[in-house]
Each structure stands twice: as structure tokens, then as C-alpha cells.
Amino acid sequence: MVTNASNLITAVGTTVADTGSKVTGTSVPGVDSGTTAGLGNAISDLGNAVKALGSGSAAGLGNLGSTANPLDPTLASTSGVVSNTAAAVTSLGGAVTSLGSGQLAPLAPLTSTVGTVVGGVGTGLNAVGPGLNQVVASAPVQQLESQLSSAINPITLAVSNTTRTVGTATGLGAPLNTLLSSIGHGLDSAGVSIAGATGDQVGKDVGTIVSQLGKTVTSTGGLLTGATTNPLAPLTGILGPVGGSSSGGGGVAIPPLTGLIGNLGALGGGTGAGTGAGSAAGVTGLLAPVTALLGNVRSPGTGGTGGTSTASSPLAPVTNLVGSLTSAAGAVGAVGGSQGGTAVNPVTGLITGLKGGSSSNSSTSTNPLAPVTNLVGGLLGGVAPAK
């Protein structure tokens, strides 16, 4: 919308400038030609100032939200606005001075004085233009522009999102957009018709103004409807891929937190199989070192007879000790000559062994507490059960 509004300003400036050109070539009876020429030049210069403002606005403010420093082109155009305005004032001073000639020669003292004053103002403004350009191009102003732009861009985006959200929530966005589009297209068509109906340049410029006004009205409807934009998109775009890897492969990217949880689940699911695909996917997870450590702690307990395991767990001594205790206690607690069965809980197996004794003195258990259990078993084994 800002771009279309800026183009409308430019169209107005063009029309004014072309009007000045027509005034320059106009002859007015009783008026010196220098007067009409000066007046025409003043109008043209004023139109050029308006055109400079429109062009700068389109190049700068028209790109709000899409460029890092949209203020620079707009502020830089102010030097052109001032310079053209100064030229317009100078031309106006010349027109006033020349007015005191010919039939109006008796007014020469007055017109000459006023014209000189006006021309001096124009000369002073003309000196401001280049200086203003240097100020705008200086490093401190450029830094200030960048800081302001960093604040303006999110605000502009937030306002746009708000108006569109309100339009969608109230249900008025779409109808108003349709209405504004209809009005805008009507004005656009009318402007094209006006421009095509005349061969005069000023007439064509007026048609361009009407047409551009229609485009501006049409674009205004876009503020009330349409998709909103997340102001944190750059940040979420960086963080999003973190959770994109999936243990199943080929999945869509998921948020970082759920991706982290998913990787933990994949790692835990892969510890039950020795060579399964789940374990391979788990090792490549985000927390591979931690989950691999936890997985290795679980793996030594799967052995049932010798308590041996090929897993290189950092806690292998502890898990091997627990496995040995479980295996030995199960062997001591076997009653009635049973040779098979699975290992039971270490505590219950140990208690059973203490109560029932060992059924064989040739056990080769590697239980680190074998001396204690054999001693207690021998003491309890020598007492005959009551009949």
C-alpha cells in the first residue's frame, strides 16, 4: 500500500511539473514573458520536488519489512526535495522581479525589492540541499537509521498482522476488501479512460493520478485480510531443523523439544536388540552418549547362565557383580534337585539359599559372598527338619 501511495505522490508531482511547462510557454497580454516563464519554472520545480519525495518514499518506506534500512532512501530524497523547492523559490523571485516591467513598470521598485528577497530565500535553501545530503550520508545518521529501522520493521509487521487478524476475526475483512477492490478497480478503469481520451499531456497525467488512486484504494483492502506473518520466523527457521531427524527416516521436521523426546524414545527402544535398526538410529540421536550409557547398563542383565556380556558398559563391574549374585543365589536356593529355571531376585535367592542350604558341594559359582553363604548354609543344613 505504501508503494502505491508513493506512486500516487509521484504522479501528482509529474502533473504539477507538466503544468509548469505549459505555463512557461503561455503568453499573457500585458505581462512580460519573463514573468510567465519564471512562474512556470517555479511550478515545474515544485512538481519535481514532489516527484523526488514520491520516488524516495517508494524506494524506502515502500519496502518496510523487506529491507534492513528502509529509511535511508526516503531521508536521502529530502535533499532533492529541498533543492527543487529552493529552485522553485528562486524562480518565483525572478517572476516577481520581472513583473515590474512593460505596462507594470511603475511597480518596478516594489517588485524588484520583493523579488530580490524571495530570490535570496531560494539561494539560501539551495545551499541547504547539499549539506543535508552530507548529513544524511554520515556514519552517525546511518547508524541511527539502522536502529530505527530495526524497531520500525517489527512494528509494521505487528500492525499488519493485527489488522488482518481483526478483519478475519470480525468477519469484516473479506467484505471490506471486496468493496475496496471494486472501488479501486473502478477508479483505475476511469483513470485509464481519462488518459486515453485526451492528447494533452496534463490530461494524461490527471488520468494517471486517478488510476494510481484506484490502485492505492485496492491495496488498502489487503490490510484487512490475508495470511499473517510470524515476526519470529527467522528464529524458528533456525531452531526448527534441530528436531527434524527421526529414527524412522523420511519424517517431516518437528519442533526441537519433540524431536529431542523422539530421539530419547528411539534410543531406549533400540537397547533390547543387539543389532536392531533401533539401536543404530538411537546412537545417532541428540543424547547418544547419555542414552548409550543407559542402554549398556541394561544389556548385561540379559545373560542367564554365566553372567557374561560383550557390552562395553562403563558400569560393567557393577552389573557383573549383580548378575553373579543373582546367579549364585539362584543356584543355592534350588530345592529338590532342580537344575533348570531362571535367576530370581538377588535378595529372595540369597534368603532361600540361607534357609535351604546347598544341594551340592561341587558348585562352581563365582559368588563373591560364597564363603558366607556356605558357612550359613552348613550351619542350617546340619539341623534336621522336625517331623
Give a summary of the structure in a few sentences:
The chain is mostly helical and 387 residues long. The protein has helices at residues 2-24, 33-59, 71-99, 108-137, 139-170, 173-197, 201-220, 233-239, 256-269, 277-283, 288-298, 316-332, 346-356, 370-381.
Description of the structure:
- The protein is an all-alpha fold.
- Among the domains are: 160 residues, no CATH class; 71 residues, no CATH class.
Question: What is the secondary structure topology, with strand pairs?
Answer:
Elements (H helix, E strand, L loop, with lengths): L1 H23 L8 H27 L11 H29 L8 H30 L1 H32 L2 H25 L3 H20 L12 H7 L16 H14 L7 H7 L4 H11 L17 H17 L13 H11 L13 H12 L6
Helix pairs in contact: 1-2, 1-7, 2-3, 3-4, 6-7, 9-10, 12-13, 13-14
List keywords for this structure.
387 residues, mainly alpha, 14 helices, disordered C terminus
